[in-house]
Amino acid sequence: MLDKLVIATSNQHKLKEIENIFKGTVIKEILPIPSDIGEIIENGTTFIENSLIKAKAVYNYTKLPSLADDSGICVNALNGEPGIYSARYGGENLGYKEKMQLILDKLKNKDDRSAYFITSAVCVLDDNYYIALEGRVNGKIIESPRGFDGFGYDPIFQPDRYNVTYAEMSLEEKNSMSHRALAMNKMKEILSSIYRN
Ligand code: ITT
């Protein structure tokens, strides 16, 4: 058993999705990020670098195994934008309705609306050991937002082989196939094999 795992995110939606995936596994207790940790500067140039920065910062502060998630949406016709800048796209203070509109405006007159969501997950276990992996789901940007569940860019993203957006799925449905679920389920398997006894 792993006694405690800190989820190194200040995004409550992500925390909820991750808790839902890890409940009832080899992890006894899931802890949120300490409220007094201060700002963690995500100045990496890739998703993996940023999740390592977050997981290491929380591990160094708590000295407990820490799991971070850096994720985003990448639109192929926009050269992968917003990508690692998904949370800051169009400016930190711009709401998600406006951020989504920005993408929709930039895609006007473009034939290729393909996009993907990616999660890079890093779990720092101790001073010498971390696990890093990714989950990715391909799909497309629809013409206008649909659905009210989820968060962020969920209302404009429709995964391949589905006719609903992420925001039209329940938490359980999104967690059965999302980029975050793919990454976190792999992480769950690895942690289970390490901490089985
Ligand atoms: P932490 O860094 O504290 O984990 P954050 O929200 O800043 O929280 P990221 O740096 O990974 O997280 O930024 C990811 C952004 O990408 C996030 O704010 C959303 O806008 C978007 N995003 C990530 N996963 C998403 C999902 O499942 N559905 C919709 N949007 C998502």
Task: Walk me through what this model shows.
The chain is 31% helix and 27% strand. It is α/β, with parallel strands linked by helices and 197 residues long. Strands 1, 2, 3, 4, 5, 6 and 7 form a 7-stranded mixed beta sheet that branches. Strand 1 (2-7), helix 1 and strand 2 form a beta-alpha-beta unit. The chain is globular, with a radius of gyration of 17 Å. The termini are close together. The structure holds inosine 5'-triphosphate. Inosine 5'-triphosphate is lined by residues 9-11, 14, 42, 54, 69-72, 86-87, 150-154, 166, 178, 180.
Apparent shape? globular
State the distance separating the first and last CA atoms. Answer: 6 Å
* Largest β sheet strand count, sense and barrel closure: 7 strands, mixed
Helix percentage range = 25-40%
| DSSP summary: helix tally | 5
Helix-and-strand structural type: alpha/beta
